[in-house]
Amino acid sequence: MDYKALTAAMRSREPGALERFQTAFTPLIRYIIAPILPDGRDREECLSDVVLRAWEAIESYDEKKASLTTWVTALARNAALNRRRANERRREGDGLDETVPDGAGSPEQSVIREETARALWAAVGRLDRRDRDMFLRKYYYYQPTAQIAAELGLSLRAVEGRLYRVRKRLQEELGGVYRG
Amino acid sequence: MSTVDDFERMLYQGAAQLPPDVPAEEPPKPWKKPMDRVCWGLGLITFSLQFLHLDTILPAVGTVLLWLGMRSLRRENGGFRFAFRCATVYTVLRFANIILLSTPLNKWLAERIGGEWNSNTGTMPMFYVCRAVVVQLLLVLAVGGLWQGLKRVFRSAGHEPKTGCAGALVFLEALLLPLALIGVSGWLVVGPLLLIWILVVRNTYKLSHVLDQAGYALTPAPARVSDGRAAACWLVPVLTAAVVLPFCFARLPVKAETPVYGPSDGQAALRSQLMEMGFPEDLLAGLSDGDVSRFQGAYGVAVKGLDYTSGNYPDGIPHVVTVEVPVRDGHYGWRVVYLARLTWDEGVDYRMEGFRLRPDIQGVVAFLDGPAGRLEWEADGAFHTAALDIRPAGWMEYLCDFSLPEAEGPVTGYVCWSAVPTYPEKTSVYNYGFDFVHRTAAWQWPYTLPTDVLTEGGSRVGWRQFHERFTGRLAPEGLYESGGYGDSDKESPAH
């Protein structure tokens, strides 16, 4: 599919552009949000949200910065995480999932978080391609270890071992920042 | 996820923060890796480069890539599952094939099964042909399973299947089978086919992009063994077998015997008669009474190839002396007995030797008694002999494969046969030749017998060949002249 033409069609609100976008990206969006949102109904709602958000925010998409696929991926992931966070907040009594980042906090906390995130991404950038891919799958896309193993053609133990080594390396590099 | 430690929680939070530089990162593409592997695997299997043993190494890598690709897809649907099973059997057969090619088993099975297949490019044992057909059929079935699997992926996503290229791939792989059986060669046919094949595989390779819109996710197929380890578990034994096994079969067995000779004065009269006629004394001294009795009724002697001391023989090629002795014969009236003495210098590398004995087509038609021969040598202070297994191979042509024993001194071989002309009342020319081949390489793959090199023709790396031609004479008593053709009519075109 010609993504340039699709982007242009969406921007000019051509009839049928939304359907074309859905045909092209629904499988990808489902793939991205599935590991983050375990509930099927949540996923369907999130899918609709993402499609709508893409349709509305297409003007803000900059082709020079990223491909349409990457942009939609980031959109889907963020939407799914927000939904999950919202769900957790609704169920506050049950306790929050500690893997889900909390957006709230004081401005000071926010600055610290940004600093640590920058340091983390710099360290992730120094990982080799395979380790970085594994890190992103695990901590950015929230993919379960079994899925990572199957898609990368590795055994569960091999993925766990490699993730352990990645964590250890990051811990060594970020010791000062990430000491809790 | 509630059990995650503090650091892991921070990783999740950190990864969710900021922008990261993710824009540069494409999302994971589950179809890409398996489809890449399948396409590369098919490419490496189908096209072979005939140098540096790449025709073995690349298909071995291709086989494991194909298997790994199919392994990742196997949980998606029945088509892929079938393709995976075919790829597994294909992988096992390929491994068995490597073992067969590295050992004498291949030839042994071909001889046991028998039969030949004639194609435009030559004759092949039926066993080789059947094996190639089974292996290629499995590949066709595997690609067929891939095609059906891809179709189902599109259908289950509610899309019209765009898998024509995979279908074309099945057709092309199936087409290779009859083409190979017929022995089609030449760039006029192979060139366009190659081009079409590359285009089809390229389109199949691109299919993974289209598959992203037909489900994107792939049903995870857990693996007990990681891809790298699985590939190593297959490639290491395969390559080890191909490297190590030829060393184990670098020699042919030598069935040594210690002969017990009786008193050697039984043929004293015949020996002195032969010597009077010009039979070389040193050669005669090496013959047993049984050998000498073949020359009973001799009425002439001609010796050829006496310049063996000139020292210009290449390593591993024997010095040759042949003696032609016409003898009276109760059945045909007369016949000519030939004796060839082959002497290998001490210190040649003891690997494999072979020779072919055949009449020169310029000579007359002569009937031969099948040649018989033996090797003689001394080792550990004892005298040993071993019979040479000389086998017929076509019209009046004989082949022999053997290995020289590790001896203290030179090894001597004797080959004896007799010739009777079609018209015994006339004098006729009987030209004959020895083609020798000596294996110089310590490692040779696939397993090859010396006489295979001779019968295939042409020079070959790791083998030295040498051809000797002799002019013989078949003549009844009274017409035979020992020196009629001289003693130096040997030609030795070395390769």
Account of the 3D structure:
By secondary structure, chain A is an all-alpha fold. Chain A has two domains: 1-101, RNA polymerase sigma factor, region 2, helix turn helix motif (Rna Polymerase Sigma Factor, Chain: A), CATH 1.10.1740; 105-173, Arc Repressor Mutant, subunit A (Orthogonal Bundle), CATH 1.10.10.10. Chain A is built from eight helices and no strands. Chain A has helices at 3-11, 17-33, 40-57, 68-90, 107-125, 129-140, 145-152, 156-173. In chain A, helix 3 packs across helix 4 and helix 6 (129-140) packs across helix 8. The longest helix of chain A is centred in the middle third of the chain and has 23 residues, at 68-90. Chain B has helices spanning 6-16, 32-46, 54-73, 78-102, 105-113, 126-156, 164-182, 187-211, 227-248, 268-277, 281-285, 289-292, 450-456; strands at residues 116-119, 122-125, 302-304, 319-329, 333-344, 353-359, 366-379, 382-388, 390-392, 398-402, 411-421, 428-439, 463-474. In chain B, the strands form three sheets. A six-stranded antiparallel β-sheet of chain B has the order 3-4-5-11-7-8, with no helix packed on it. In chain B, strands 9-10-6-12-13 form a five-stranded antiparallel β-sheet. Chain B is built from 13 helices and 13 strands. In chain B, helix 7 runs antiparallel to helix 8 (187-211). Chain B folds into two domains: 26-248, no CATH class; 268-474, Immunoglobulin-like, CATH 2.60.40. The longest helix of chain B is centred in the first third of the chain and has 31 residues, at 126-156. With 495 residues, chain B is α+β, with helices and mostly antiparallel strands. Classes of the chains: A mainly alpha (180), B alpha+beta (495). The interface between A and B is large, with 59 and 48 residues.
